[in-house]
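Notebook p. 47: complex prediction with zinc ion.
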Amino acid sequence: MLSCDDVPAEPLPATGAVAGIDMGVASLATTSDGEHLTNPRHLAASADRLAAAQRALARKKRGSKRRRKAVARVAALHAKVRRQRLDGAHKAALALVRTGASRTCARCGHSAKENRATQADSACTACGHTAHADVNAAVNILGAGLALRRAAGAA
Ligand SMILES: [Zn+2]
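Predicted complex, structure tokens below:
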């Protein structure tokens, strides 16, 4: 199975964009712009189910058929939580960028509504950097994603 860990990470040229991101439990992340991202609730629900399954497993007799079933259930829930965490990280990175990123210059980090010249193009009013809006956003998304990965201790 292919996972995100299989993709080699390559160092990228610095964009100059800077964002402080604080990772927490109450909110998933708080950026230096004061943006809050909440932890997805479905993840907490799955974590509760996993904990219950682990408690149930602990009560099963070794070598029993019921214990084997309980092990499979715990493993499936672990995989589910892992998928949900990764999905949440992707969505959080995208949300960070959508709110700031379509208006944030990928080169100097200047954020202004005026940076988004048209739907297709972005032109920074501070440094004059011009790029296709999607390319500019992609650079910002990558930066936000890498910041999230570092903050999460690399999932
Ligand atoms: Zn700029």
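Notes: Residues 105, 107-108, 110, 124, 126-127, 129 surround zinc ion (CB under 6 Å). The helical segments are 41-59, 65-100, 133-151.
Next step: compare against the earlier run before touching the bench.
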